[in-house]
Amino acid sequence: MKLTPLLLAFGLAFQIQAADAPNAAGLQLYSLRSQFTLRGVPWTLDRVKEFGIKEVELAGTYNLSAEQFKAELEQRGLKAVSSHFPYDRYKNDLDNVVKDAKTLGIKFAGCAWINHKDSFDEAECREAAAVFNKAGEALAKEGITMFYHAHGFEFEPYGDGTLFDLFMQETKPEFVSVQMDVLWIVFPGQDPAKLLEKYSGRWKLMHLKDLKKGIATGFLSGKTDVANDVVLGTGQMDWVSIFAAARKNGIQHYFIEDESPTSMDQIPASLKFLRTNGFE
Question: Which residues in the chain land under pLDDT 70?
């Protein structure tokens, strides 16, 4: 079939529009863990809805079953896109992880921490890669994508690179993707835009999190005071380069994660920042 100039122009315009289309700003519900515990699930999800959030990522269901938590989300028009599950469950309870992921109706199932002793080492890295390859294959059979959320400690030197590089080499791209938490890339002294480019196509999800100005970086602990999470746009991150690289290299969903004790106040301000930077 021969395309007319009009159809070609329409196709080009569609591609440009798709590339420039705004991304939805979602929320990692761990940001409100204290509210879930103290105020309960209904009250907290009502606040999420009031923020104008439509997409969420889970990190537990706060004493509700997967079915019950999904029903609470649906009552408020909230869509669970992804969820974190503990590393030990991927190792020892994989069948039920898959079952819960299916029940929640999520597209992505991930893990945010690899259990390790002292400094993360090669043996722990290789073991985790094997665990996630197996989990990713099982989840893929149900149409769900497995991902790992790097936390900073994976950047221990290894060979000509880091253990994160080894992890990316050892995990199968067809079964294991990765989630970038911007703070946990900058805090250990890495460059988010360069890493997005280096592993283009492997990154599927992003946590939007800003690090307070003046906080030193270059540490591989994977831990910093939660009060160092600040309103997006007020910290150290170069969001212009990060957003450009994210849109170029395959990020599909973005979630604010604000672990600070003032997250209820900071989340609306972060949403305002995102909505002036091309987000819905």
Answer: 1-22
Q: Is residue 16 part of a domain?
A: no
Q: Which two tokens stand for residue 147?
A: 């991902």
CATH of the domain at 39: 3.20.20.150
CA atoms within 13 A on the CB side of 253: 24
Which residues face 62 on adjacent strands? none
What pLDDT was estimated at residue 11? 42
Look up residue 133 and give its two tokens: 């390859």
- CA dihedral (204, 210, 16, 280) in degrees, to 10, reads 100
Question: In this structure, how many other beta carbons lie within 10 angstroms of the beta carbon of residue 14?
Answer: 10
Contact 27, 258 (CB under 8 A): no
- What confidence score (pLDDT) does residue 19 get? 44
Sign of the torsion angle spanned by Cα atoms 82, 86, 88, 89: negative
> Is 129 contained in some domain?
yes
Do the beta carbons of residue 164 and residue 192 sit within 8 Å?
no
The SS3 call for residue 176 is: strand
